[in-house]
Each structure stands twice: as C-alpha cells, then as structure tokens.
Predict the 3D structure of the following.
Amino acid sequence: MPRRALTLLAVVLAVLSAAVPASGLERLKRVTDRFYFFQGDFGNPNSGVIVTPDGLVLIDAQWSTAAAADFLLEIREVSDRPIRFLVYTHAHADHISGAHVLARGATVVASASTAREMEERGRETIETLKERIRNQADDLPLVLPALTFTERAVIQVGGVEVILIDAGRGHSWGDTAVHLPAEGILYAADLVATNRFPWIRDSSTREWLAALSRLSAGAGGSIERVFPGHGEPGGAASIEKTKRLLKALRREAGAAIEAGLSSVEAQRRVRLAEFSSLDNYEFRLPPAVGRVYDEMESEKEGIAPGLPAPAPPAERPAP
Ligand SMILES: [Zn+2]
C-alpha cells in the first residue's frame, strides 16, 4: 500500500478509536496524579475526579444527561477504574442532574442538609432546570444520596484520604467541600467565587461567611489550590476574596436599608467596584443585592435566616 494511503488509514483509525466528547472539547485537566478538574464550558458547572488504584471518587454530577456523558467519556480517557463514590457538594440542580449517568454502581454521598434539600425540593429545581435546557429535556431522575454525614467524613479509597467538610448553610441549604490534604487541594464548589460573580438567590450570606471560616479551619491551612463549582481554579486567597465580596454586599445592602431605600432602589444603586470585573457581575449583582436586602431585613426583625430558605428561588435555578 502506498505510504500516503497508509497514513490516511492510520488517521482514520485514530479518529474512529478516539472517544471524542459530543462537545468536541477536552475539559478534563490533570492537576496532580490524583486529581483531575473538569471545567464546564460557558460557566456551566465544574466537576472533579479523584483517581486511586482501587477506583474513582467523583465530585458533582453535571447538569444534564449529555453533559454527564461527556464528562464520563473524558474520565474514561484517564482511567478505566470503577467509580466508587459520587459526592454532591450541594443540592442545586445543575450539580446533581447527571447522577443517573455517573453513579451506576457507585455510592452517592452528601451532607444531611443537602439530602434534606434534595428531598424537599430537588424534583422541583430539576424541573425548573429542564425548562432552561429545553433542547436536552430528557428525563432527569433525582438520585438521592445513599450515605449522608454531618460535619466531617473521610473516604478512604486505594490509600487516598478524601475529606468531606460539611461547611453548613451558605450558598445553598448545606454546602460540602472536598479536601485532599496530601495534594493541598480544596474543591469548594459554589461556596467560592474565583472569576465569576456568585449565584446568591437562596443563600444566607451571614451563614456563608461562617461556612467559609469553617472551610479554612476544617482544611487546617493545607490549601494551595481552590476549585470552584463554576469558572476558573484559584488559590487559597479566593476564600478571602469571596468573604470580602459577601461582606461588601452586606455593607452596601445594610447602608441602603439604613438610608431608607427600597429593595428596588438598592438593586439599582449598589455597585461593588472591587468585583466589577467578575464574569456576570452586571447580571447577577442586582438580584444578589435584593436577596441580601431581604435577608438583612429579616435579621433586623429577629427572624433567623436559617433553614429552610425563606422561599424557593424566584428565578431559574442553577449556576
Ligand atoms: Zn449552586
């Protein structure tokens, strides 16, 4: 066979044998030998993969059947080991809806408060997500955790210690971070903002600040890299940056209340100069101000903004 034909045949075979995700993108990036980070495109949710000789631990389940299938294809490029555990960082639909693709044969783990939020409104938030992704609106079954924990749990797989820190209520009804102490890695999910303005619709910013302190304390200083639930990875400083953002929001919303502004006026006027370069700043700041305004009004009246969240999010759930 002429050489050119052989080369062509080799190329065709290579293309046929390569598992190319439907998106055509390769988003699963090696961070260390043990940890891979899957960054969603266009701010879609991220996920993590912990690789051990005895199997895999996945963090978060993506937001649709197709997104989870793409994630799984990329996982299989890296390891053919079984998926032992799937950890949910929180109950928002965009982090759990692909679990039926990923969790076959795996144990799904979440904090007790995440499990409770899923039981109480998981179905409802998935239905709202389905409206948002009409072109992929297949059946998205709610996969509840089989194993729940409070405060702290340790998963030992293949000699790797994976620590789950239940940071408590904050961004959602209950947020979990995944800590790999030996790698200096903290997967903090939606508790931490790096390059994107956070989603603050059903959050309690007062408790979120406490949750971030619990995260730092729980990880005991062993944090070099922080992985958010959306957007780019960051360093340990992204925890402090998120605290500054939440404090600035509370300061400005509190000042608006003191000045007698209505929530709508506050949403129109409040600006946070330090954070104006974050993705989605213009679009997410006003509803965040509205949420914090309501939260601080309740605090003033002595209504604890704890569980359950005051009302289901008025807007579409997710990121
Ligand atoms: Zn979220």
